[in-house]
Amino acid sequence: MDEDAARWVVRKEGAKLEPDTLAQFDAWYGADPLHAQTYDALAASWRRLDQVSVLPIARKKRKSRVKTLASACVLMGASFYAWQMFEQQGLINSGVEITQLSLPDGSVAILDAQTRVRLNFEHGQRQVSVESGRAFFQVVPATAQTGPFTVQTGLAQATALGTRYEVSFNDQVSAVAVYEHTVQVQCQSCDTSQPVILQPGDRATVAHGQLQAQLAQSTASTHAEAAPAWTNGLLSFDDVSLREAARQLGQYTHRVIWMGSEKAEATRVSGVVQAARPAAALNLLTVGQGLQIRELPGLIVIY
């Protein structure tokens, strides 16, 4: 019902309707009192809202100490919340927030939004299972009392050899990307169980019973950053569909992002944006494209 109401708000507020279309609206509006109530509330919100302010373009630069401290405080709060959740449920789910965890062995895990992991650090074990989403790990070396640091995701197992690396599991595809030192990746149910050793800049995927490694061609192609951009709250898009950008940004909000026109569906975008502010990010990505972004209760409309 909310989506139907939002559709009519976009159409009625955007242009004068033809008689046939107006008759369809009147029929829908009068068919159910809830239709009218929902439409009136959304239309009132639409008229009250000014256009969302545009974010300045994000540039790669070192954070100031104040910004770093502020980010650390936010992540510490998210970490405390995630540990409470782990103690209560045996499972950590980041929800719509990027969440930092201080693990029992001193390692650090940063979970992207909509990421679910399980931890096993009993009896000297150091095991993490990424059940969905993606996580970045900063691993401390093993000691005489601890075993290797291993991340399980789908059919892939990634064992750190003292390193920084990213692990993701989406649509039944496991992926590992190395940012520092080396990682051993092994597929547990592939045609070959031979592990591969990844260096900085290398990546590997496991899907459909196959382990494939993409090795950096030269030192110039290795990761220049110590961590992926998303761990700092940034998303980068390079000539992707607006629908795909909206899908990714939708992971960082409880609101639905709705494509309200064929023009929006056909638009492609590029840019670097702040994931935590999806509406402003969409505004930035669509500058000069002739599109509008509107925020309604529980909804972001692109038309």
UniProtKB/TrEMBL annotation:
Residues 97-183 form the FecR protein domain. Keywords: Membrane, Transmembrane, Transmembrane helix. InterPro entries: FecR (IPR006860), FecR_N (IPR032623), Ferrdict_sens_TM (IPR012373). Gene3D superfamilies: 2.60.120.1440. Residues 4-43 form the FecR N-terminal domain. The chain crosses the membrane at residues 69-86. The keyword Transmembrane applies. PANTHER family: PERIPLASMIC SIGNAL SENSOR AND SIGMA FACTOR ACTIVATOR FECR-RELATED, PROTEIN FECR. This is FecR domain-containing protein. It comes from Alcaligenes aquatilis.
